[in-house]
Every structure is written in C-alpha cells, then in structure tokens.
Amino acid sequence: PEDIPVITIDGPTASGKGTLADVVAHELGYIVLDSGALYRATGLAARRAGVELDEAEAVAAIAAKLDLHFAKGRVWLGDEDITDALREEASGLAASQVAAHAPVRAALNQLQLDFRCLPGLVADGRDMGSMVFPDAPLKVFLTASAATRAERRHKQLISKGIPANIAGLREDLEARDARDKGRTASPLQAAADARRLDNSAQTIEESRDLVLSWWAEARPFKGSALSH
Ligand code: CDP
Ligand code: CDP
Q1: 13-212: which CATH architecture?
Q2: 169: exposed, middle or buried (C-beta count within 10 Å: 0-12, 13-18, 19+)?
Q3: CA of 126 to the centre of ligand 2 (A)
Q4: Successive 10-residue mean pLDDT values, the chain, 228 residues
Q5: What Cα–Cα distance (Å) separates residue 9 from each residue in 23, 50, 82, 162?
Q6: What pLDDT does 160 receive?
Q7: What does the radius of gyration of the chain's CA atoms come to, in whole angstroms?
Q8: Which of 4, 113, 122, 206 is packed most tightly, with the most Cβ within 10 A?
Q9: Mutate to test the pocket of ligand 2, among 126, 130, 132, 157 (most ligand atoms within 8 A of CB)
C-alpha cells in the first residue's frame, strides 16, 4: 500500500478541505476519503444506540462495528441513508466530541487505511497527514480566516434553505477549532512536512491548480497531473 499514491488535506472546519479533495481527486481520477464522515457517523450511531458521547470505550465499540457504506455520493448506516443527517452542524459538534477519545480514533484507523487503493487516494480531515498516512508524498494544511470560513458555511446553509447567522456560526466553528487543536489525541496540527495553503482569497480552481502543481513536483516521474 505504501506504493499507492496519497494526497492528504487537513485543516480547520469550513476551510474548503472537502471541496478541494473532490476537485483534485476528480482531476487525477483518485478516490476520496472524507474522514470527518466517519467521526460524524460514529457520533450519530452512538446517539442512536443511546450511548453518551463522553463514554470513550462505549463509543469506541460503536466505531469498531460501524456498518457504513458509501455509494453514489450517499452515505448509508446499515440500511438508512444518513447523508443529510451527517451534514447537520449538530453532527459536526458530536463528531468533535467523539473524536477526542483515543480509543475511538484507534477503532477508525484501519477503516481509513482501507481506503488506500489504486489508482490513488485524496484523504481529508484533521490528522490524515500527521497520523493516518504519515508517508503521503504530498500533505496539504489548508486554512482560511475564521471570518471567511463562517461566511462560507453561512452561504452553504442558506443555499440549502437552512436559516443561519454568521456570528453564531463563527462562534461554533471557533469552539470546534479550539477543541480540535486542544485535545491530546491527534490534535489538529500541520504535519512537519505539510505545505501550508491559506485559501481565504483564492477560488477553488486556484487552490486545485496549485495542489496539482505540488503533486507534479512531489511525483516528478509519475505525475500526469498537469496534462489537462
Ligand atoms: O470540508 P470543509 O469543512 O473544510 O469545507 P468545504 O465544505 O469543502 O467548504 C466550505 C464551503 O466553502 C463550500 O461551500 C465551498 O464551496 C466554499 N469554498 C469557497 O467558497 N472558496 C474556496 N476557495 C473554498 C471553499
Ligand atoms: O466539514 P468540517 O471540517 O466541519 O468537519 P469534518 O471534517 O466532517 O469533521 C467533523 C469533526 O470530526 C471535526 O471537528 C473533528 O473533531 C473530527 N475529525 C477528526 O478528529 N479527525 C478527522 N480526521 C476528521 C474529523
């Protein structure tokens, strides 16, 4: 598996990781691991099972048995389509609570490694470069200002007809950032060899092309990344 190419994209909430992962993977024909979805699904499954989110071992047992499937852009937990439920802010908050438990992270580790298959993987999350795929030839640490991220999240929600206010969203995302950075188990931090990218003033296409050029540099003999 070490020969299978991986690009990792880590960073705080609403920095654009998922979008960047999708467009980069699309250009390269790679698959995508949205690791946040695994933590979100764990939070959801724990709540469904009546398990308190602060009970590390009980939540880890749920994570280890997670019956999760990805198909045609939808996410299934058992035979339930949980795609929309996963995107709710409450799911993000629950995810960040269960993600603080080391046993939960350990339970999800192999599941994440199993996504590494040919022709290649783009993995986004908080610790893809620092913990899960430390040998990835290209690690991106994606950031944007809190104001920009709150605006992006606001636009996303409004476009889906979900009422939201920017100040409240900014407070929520700063609280989640603080929890993700402050925890002892795999805190949000750039890997030592990560390339930092602040995309506050960038379009998605600009970020995509920059990452593809980094990828061509990181894999000079295999990269056909810039062939389009
Ligand atoms: O995955 P993550 O929470 O980091 O962020 P996302 O869901 O990919 O992006 C949040 C929102 O920001 C999406 O609606 C993106 O379209 C938008 N975005 C943007 O407007 N400009 C960028 N350069 C990157 C993302
Ligand atoms: O889209 P957004 O960045 O808001 O969230 P996400 O990537 O779906 O992740 C939700 C939560 O799961 C984060 O706040 C983290 O606490 C946790 N998470 C993590 O700890 N490690 C990962 N690799 C991915 C997510």
Answers
A1: 3-Layer(aba) Sandwich (3.40)
A2: buried
A3: 6
A4: 91 96 98 96 96 97 95 92 91 92 96 95 97 96 97 93 92 91 92 97 98 91 49
A5: 12, 33, 24, 27
A6: 87
A7: 17
A8: 122
A9: 126
Query: Of 145, 59, 154, 71, nearest to 107 (Cα)?
Result: 59
Mutational test site, ligand 1, from 19, 38, 148, 151, max ligand atoms within 8 Å of CB: 19
* Predicted pLDDT of residue 228: 42
- What is residue 106's predicted lDDT score, i.e. its pLDDT? 97
Q: How far is the CA of 97 from the centre of ligand 2 (A)?
A: 10
Q: Is the CB of 202 under 6 A from ligand 1?
A: yes
Q: Distance from first CA to last CA of the chain, Å, rounded?
A: 27
Tell me which residue has tokens 């070490």.
Answer: 2
Please tell me the number of the ligand nearest to residue 104's CA.
Answer: 2
216 CA from centroid of ligand 2 (Å)? 28
Pocket of ligand 2 (CB under 6 A): 13-14, 18, 35-36, 39-40, 92, 95-96, 99, 125-128, 176, 180
Which bound ligand lies closest to the C-alpha atom of 18? 1
ipTM of this predicted structure: 0.98
pLDDT of residue 162: 85
Q: Give me 90's structure tokens.
A: 């409450």
**The predicted structure's pLDDT at residue 221:** 58
For residue 211, the number of C-alpha atoms closer than 13 Å in the C-beta half-sphere is 34
